[in-house]
Write a structure and sequence with these properties.
The structure is a homodimer.
Chain A lengths: L1 E5 L3 E7 L8 E3 L2 E7 L1 H11 L4 E8 H11 L5 E2 L2 E3 L4 E7 L4 E5 L7 H15 L4 E5 L10 H11 L3 E5 L2 H10 L3 E2 L13 H15 L2 E5 L5 E4 L4 E4 L12 H14 L4 H16 L9 H10 L3 E3 L4
Parallel strand pairs in A: 1-5, 1-10, 2-8, 5-6, 5-7, 10-11, 11-12, 12-13
Antiparallel strand pairs in A: 2-4, 8-9, 13-14, 14-15, 15-16
Helix pairs in contact in A: 1-7, 4-5, 7-8, 8-9
């Protein structure tokens, strides 16, 4: 069983309009709602792959109830912690030209919310092989939330994968998760090429003892476990919606670790999943036939460690 | 008891951002949510005035549950009909310059939804003196929904006030409600001055047998019952948020009719309520001290009927 942690899930709402005009009133022609947040996307991809997955984190208010109802039947086991404050919404307004996004702040957590969550996390960690933690953290969570959770997971002797950014990534890194898997923007290197990314991954891996995987979208990924290094480029470019591709990659890493596969094989498979997510219309899904096609030709190249 | 009809209530969400930029991702700094829809605003103003009021219409899904929970304790008696489809949301994005609005379409009603609603309406009409109907109609409602409801109300021998636009206003007019109360935009005359509005009100009153009140915001209102005519200008201009001022006016008309006050007195009082709503921060509220001040100096002038 994989434990997917989503501290800040969302109800992702998409509005279709003719054209976004600041100051105007728009009649929305079409509305889509789906469960969102990076950890939820990870859990959904794992469930689609038939991988047993339990979701923990926070859900509250009417949006939280909607999210839980929408997850029912997805295959994801829902162990979200009920909170008083309402789960955030994201609004993406799509017109012919662009997507305009409005992100609500996450629900403020109380100390009691966090305590109840960690009790659930400990209980679930006892029965899972891997804990995978992704995305932002709502206000009121400890500043080193991911660090605390990695230490708890290590106490339970389970494998950990963390995809976070900024201070939460640094807090996770200090606790030494099995794999740190930011994308290049989350790693603070939005415009870096493979060589710079690989240097950053090697340095971080050397300091933390974690394997570090930095994903770079269409440019593939770089990885280092401190002794060995790898780069990988996608077997072919896929057109579609890149939102959620990084979450499919993270899901692939978690699944590979749960299956105790060698890291190069894990990375090749995860990159195929990321490509197959681009071809799926919404985040949290993959195109299964494309996944099988890409997995057959996806590979990683071992590179010399940085001097 | 006044029966407020809100066929298409909404959860009104306000986002505060720095500046709306099409194609960009915005972090929302502040989120406000409140029950909305014209009929809900009418009911809330009546409740604030201490007037017994029951709300009927439709509510569904997570937003519908949120709306009902938010109305609890407001003094409005909730007799909304539960539906499967979700109550609509409106998103108003406020920056330093402007308000940008995204209106979701209303929830599609089934035939069974409408039937269950009309049963509730009939039951409530038996114990109410006035039915006041405001605002848009969700998809799936009959094309002459307000006409049907006015006829049902007349069958129960109760007074009716309708604030609607377009084909729904015309359908209501054909059924001859006690008062038709569109604003000038809803009446199809967004730029008309008092003389043209008064001519339109007189003509419509003559054809329908209804009293017709057309509100014109800061310019006041015109009214005709087919034999007598009135105009009124606000005793003074109030600065603030005009959203919901028309709903306060409609609430005032419904309350005056419930108290069997003469129409000129009803109109003067309703205009004071509209002004007091402008001074309140959100729709569905009035500034009570200002209402008392404005009511003391609000009056209407009888004008000669149109030739």
């Amino acid at each position: 069983m994989i434990l997917a942690v989503c501290l800040n899930p969302a109800v992702d709402v998409t509005y279709v309009v003719d054209a976004v005009r600041p100051g105007a009133s728009h009649q929305v022609s079409t509305v889509h709602r789906r469960p969102g947040g990076k950890g939820v996307n990870v859990a959904r991809v794992l469930a689609q792959l038939g991988e047993p997955v339990t979701l923990c984190g926070f859900a509250g208010g009417a949006p939280g109830r909607w999210l839980r109802a929408a997850l029912a039947g997805s295959g994801v086991i829902d162990r979200l912690t009920e909170i008083e404050a309402g789960t955030r919404q994201t609004i993406t307004v799509v017109d012919d030209a662009d997507a305009t996004v409005f992100n609500e702040p996450g629900p403020p957590l109380t100390t009691d919310d966090w305590t109840r969550f960690t009790e659930t996390f400990d209980e679930l960690a006892k029965t899972c092989e891997v804990a995978v933690m992704s995305g932002s953290v709502p206000p009121g969570a400890p500043g080193d939330a991911y660090g605390l959770l990695v230490r708890r997971a290590k106490h339970h002797k389970i494998t950990t994968v963390v995809d976070a950014s900024g201070s939460q990534m640094l807090a996770a890194a200090e606790a030494g998760p099995t794999v740190l898997a930011p994308n290049r923007a989350e790693a603070g290197l939005p415009d870096a090429g493979p060589a710079s990314l690989f240097a950053a991954a090697s340095t971080l891996a050397g300091r933390t003892g974690s394997a570090v995987v930095i994903s770079a979208g269409r440019d593939g990924l770089v990885a280092s476990d401190g002794r060995h290094g790898w780069t990988a480029t996608p077997p072919r470019q896929v057109s579609g919606n890149p939102t959620g591709a990084g979450d499919a990659l993270t899901a692939g890493i978690a699944r590979g670790l749960a299956h105790r596969s060698p890291l190069p094989d894990v990375l090749a498979d995860a990159m195929a999943l990321a490509g197959a997510a681009v071809a799926a219309p919404v985040a949290g899904q993959i195109d299964e036939p494309l996944y099988r096609e890409l997995a057959a030709s996806s590979s990683v190249q071992e590179v010399a460690p940085c001097p």
